[in-house]
Amino acid sequence: MESLTNTLHTVPLNHYILLSAIIFSIGVMGVLLRRNAIIIFMSVELMLNAVNLLLTAFSVYSGDASGQVFVFFIMALAAAEVAVGLAIIVMIYRNTNSIDINVLNRLKW
Amino acid sequence: MNTFYFIAFLSIFFSVLVISAKNPVHSILYLVLTFFTFTIQYILLNAQFLAIVNFIVYMGAILVLFLYTLMLMNLNKDSEPFKSNIVKIAAVLGGGCLFVVLFACFRQVGIAEPVVLKDPGLGLVKNLGKVLFNEFLLPFEISSLLLLSAMVGAVLLATKDPKTV
Fold this sequence. Notes:
A: mainly alpha; B: mainly alpha; Four Helix Bundle (Hemerythrin (Met), subunit A); NADH-quinone oxidoreductase subunit K (chain A); membrane (chain A); NUOK/Mnh_C1-like (chain A); transport (chain A); NADH_UbQ_OxRdtase_chain4L/K (chain A)
């Protein structure tokens, strides 16, 4: 474990920020690109995880454990969000026989 | 070759595959791989508790839930209708613009110091448990309420309404 974490010493914080920004942008692209509601949901998970990684990196950088506790709370929140969101998607599928989000444009009226 | 850059490349590669795979089941499997690379990143940062939680909760629970829901729906091939090329280009452009803006902002900040682990026990269960049950006791209890209400809500939403059937 020591030798594994020693490789860290050469990675600047910049690169963690860059990696998280790339993953977050890919998540945003996924939300805009796809019409399948479940894949849109998965892209949201991707964005949450990018933020989690950045919080952990900053927590290690500043030697403060609060950042990692926040990541723990975000994971609990994501679990709750997934349970409710998938229940809503199942209900939409039961009513419309499709999980295409364009079917939902009737919500406008 | 530094491990970080290799794992970072893998996570970007798999996350691109997540949003570009045609079959939703493949998409979820690529998402599992992406989360596995994130677990490795946590281990590299010596955040062992988060690595285990990410492994068990995200890859074990949340993604299996996704997979089950997808299999229950029994989608056929034409479930995702054709989306016009203009919309696709616009989506990629929008995401790219967001990335450029973020990147430009962080370049201005310019924190180039390496991430150094000052306290080796920072991410261990012992240390995190002390912080969690001292400073964050009330948020911890409230999050249990959140999970309970989410469970009740999910059961209420997903069961069929006996009056309408």
